[in-house]
Amino acid sequence: MIPLGCTTFPSDSAQCSECSDELSEVACFEDSIREMKLKQRQNHEKLATGKSISLSLNCTYYLMPSSWLTKWRNYINSSGKNISTSVEPEVLDPVIDALKCEWHSRLLERPPDLVNKRGGLVQKSSTTDALTIITENDWNSFCEEWGGNKEKGIMATIESSDVAENNLGGSQEDVFISKDNPSSQDEVNNDPEIRQPLIRISPEICEDCIGERKSRELAKKLNYFNEDISVSLVRGKEAPRSILEASSATPETDRRASKRSRKTSYGTSVNLKVSGSTSLYQLKMMIWESLGVVKENQILHKGSMIIDQESATLADLNIFPGDKLWVQDSEIHEHRDIADEITDQKASSKHPEKGFQGTLLTTTTSSQVA
Prior knowledge:
Blueprint: H1 17-43, H2 45-49, E1 60-65, H3 66-77, H4 92-97, E2 114-117, E3 120-123, E4 131-135, H5 136-146, E5 154-159, H6 161-167, E6 175-177, E7 198-202, H7 207-222, E8 227-234, H8 241-248, E9 262-263, E10 267-274, H9 280-291, E11 298-302, E12 305-307, E13 324-329, H10 338-350
Parallel strand pairs: 8-13
Antiparallel strand pairs: 1-4, 1-5, 2-3, 5-7, 6-7, 8-10, 9-10, 11-12, 11-13
C-alpha cells in the first residue's frame, strides 16, 4: 500500500539529468575541497599539527597572526560532520596589512619569545602570543594558497647577541630581545651564541603606536563599575608566597566571587564590590567594616607594593577588577567603632569653609561601605 501524498514513479523512469548534474557538481566540489585540504596539510605538516618549528641562527623566517593560523588549522583538519562548522580563513593580504600601523607602516605586535629546549631553539609556547614564527617555505606557500603578497611579509631573522650588537649601527628599533628563562637543565644550551637570541624584524616595531594602543586599553580596563576585588588580612610581618603571587598575577574578571569572608591559613579573605572611581579612603572603610581593621592601622598591598594616598581612586592606583590585595594591621592606633568615623565625616561636611560655599567642594559624598 502506497502512503497518501507520496509520488510514485514507474520502474523504468529516466533519471533527471538536471538533478544528476547538480549532484555531480556538488560531489566534485567536495572532492576538490578534500584534495585541497590534504595538499595543505602535506605542505605545512608541522603547522597543521601544531608542532614547534626548530629555528636556526641567521635564517630567514616570517611572522604570521596566531589567530589566522588557528582558524586555518581548524579548517584544513575538519572532516565529516565538522566540515559544516569549520570557517574558511580570510584572504591573507589584508590580514598582514592589519598588523602594520597606517601612519608609519610598522609592526603593531611584538614577536614571540624564544627558548633553548633540548639543545635547539624554538618559539616559547604561549596562548597569548599574537604572532607565530613560520618558515620561508610556509610563507611562500600560504601566499599562493590564500592570496598573500610575498613582498609584504613580516620578515624575522634570528641572531646571536654579539652579531646583533655589531649590526645595530645606532638603531635598536628593529631588534627584539628574547626573554629566555630556561626552567630546567635540559632546556639550557651550552652554546653561548644562542643563549640570548635576538630577533631582527622588518618592518620595524612601531613603539609609538603600540604605546598609544596600550594606553587606550588600560583606560578601558580601569573604567569599571561594581566589580569584585579580593582583600586578604594577613597576620604576621610577611605575607605568604601564595598571597604575593596571587596579588601580582593577572586578575580573572569573569570568575564569580562570594561576598562572604573566608578563613584561610594566613588570615581572613573577603570580596568587595568596587568601581574605578572608588577612592582608597572608601575602600579602607569597606575593609574596616568587613575585616575589623581600623583605617589608620591598615597597611594595604598589591603584590609587594604598598598602596596609600587615600584621596586617589582605584583607577589612579591601577587596581583592576579581580585584583587580589592584602592588608596588615599595624596595631599602632587603638580600635574604635566605625560609626565614630562616619559621624565625624558627616559633621565636618556640614560645616564647610565659607570661601567654598556654593561650590562642588561643599557637596556631601557618602562612603561606599559594603
